[in-house]
């Protein structure tokens, strides 16, 4: 079954890593042809010839970049990445998968001091949040293991994703404030949305049918 009603090929940027399995399951439920190559291969470009589809396997934070520049027509990406990267793309659908929360956390005995430092992988989200709260903070960008920062005295608080809460718990940190809920989104390149509207609408329609209800 061809996905597109015309001859236009659709390129989909897929996030490698944590949400990949859930995203693949979602594509399968939506009736897209998910080949063994897509599920179990080190190839980064995976064409599905008879469906006029091509998948590119991207680092999650790069998905909006590929979509903004039009090298991918659509992409699957977390809302956290969209908020942080601020790329010029259309956000078409909330897929209601990849649930987690963006939180402020600290050691349990944290008290406001004069030098407020916040460590995070998400400097834009953190800066905007504390600006809106009227709090002046110094934001320190880290690339991972953010929970270390309060434990070793680099920062008072962190802004990070919490899912099960296990990482906070096992490192003796507590949730202070919730910034927002995070889920996985379908995004589209602005030109593709106009020029390949049939193909983009068709894929969005298939996704819409399998988005978990009640969310
Ligand atoms: N517990 C979680 N921690 C981090 N991300 C989560 C979690 N649950 C769901 N997500 C989603 O998964 C995406 C992150 O996936 P992943 O950790 O593979 O990417 P990454 O941060 O680029 O990885 P890394 O930098 O560790 O290679 C986030 O954008 C978020 O939307
Ligand atoms: O609430 P939990 O279920 O414990 O999940 C949250 C943790 O998962 C993520 O880290 P990740 O595993 O991506 O590693 P990182 O430290 O390299 O960002 C996130 O940054 C938290 O540290």
What are the salient characteristics of this protein?
about 220 residues; alpha/beta; D-Maltodextrin-Binding Protein, domain 2; 6-stranded mixed sheet; 5-stranded mixed sheet; 9 helices; 11 strands; binds adenosine-5'-triphosphate; binds 1-O-pyrophosphono-5-O-phosphono-alpha-D-ribofuranose
Describe the structure.
One of its GO terms (cellular component) is cytoplasm. Heteromultimer composed of HisG and HisZ subunits. The chain is built from nine helices and eleven strands. It is of the alpha/beta class and 215 residues long. Helix 5 (123-132) links the parallel strand 7 and strand 8 (138-141). The mean pLDDT is 93. It folds into two domains: 10-98 and 183-210, 3-Layer(aba) Sandwich (D-Maltodextrin-Binding Protein, domain 2), CATH 3.40.190.10; 100-181, Periplasmic binding protein-like II (D-Maltodextrin-Binding Protein, domain 2), CATH 3.40.190.10. The strands form two sheets. Strands 2-3-1-4-11-5 form a six-stranded mixed β-sheet. The protein has a five-stranded mixed β-sheet with strand order 8-7-9-6-10. It is elongated, with a radius of gyration of 19 Å. It is 31% helix and 28% strand. It binds adenosine-5'-triphosphate and 1-O-pyrophosphono-5-O-phosphono-alpha-D-ribofuranose (PRP).
């Amino acid at each position: 079954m061809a996905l597109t009603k015309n001859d236009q090929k659709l390129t989909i940027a897929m996030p490698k890593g944590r949400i990949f399995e859930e995203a693949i399951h979602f594509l399968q439920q939506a009736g897209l042809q998910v080949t063994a190559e897509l599920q179990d291969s080190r190839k980064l470009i995976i064409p599905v010839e008879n469906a006029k589809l091509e998948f590119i396997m991207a680092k999650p934070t790069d998905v909006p970049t590929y979509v903004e520049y039009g090298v991918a027509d659509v992409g699957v990406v977390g809302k956290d990445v969209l908020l942080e990267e601020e790329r010029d793309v259309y956000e078409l659908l909330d897929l209601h998968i990849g649930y987690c929360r963006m939180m402020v956390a600290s050691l349990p005995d944290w008290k406001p001091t004069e030098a407020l430092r916040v460590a995070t992988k998400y400097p834009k989200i953190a800066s905007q949040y504390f600006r809106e709260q009227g709090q002046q903070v110094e934001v320190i960008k880290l690339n991972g293991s953010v929970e270390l920062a309060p434990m070793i005295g680099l920062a008072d608080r962190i802004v990070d994703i919490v899912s099960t809460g296990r990482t906070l718990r096992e490192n003796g940190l507590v949730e202070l404030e919730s910034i927002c809920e995070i889920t996985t989104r379908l995004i589209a390149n602005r030109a593709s949305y106009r020029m390949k509207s049939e193909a983009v609408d068709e894929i969005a329609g298939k996704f819409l049918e399998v988005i978990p209800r009640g969310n």
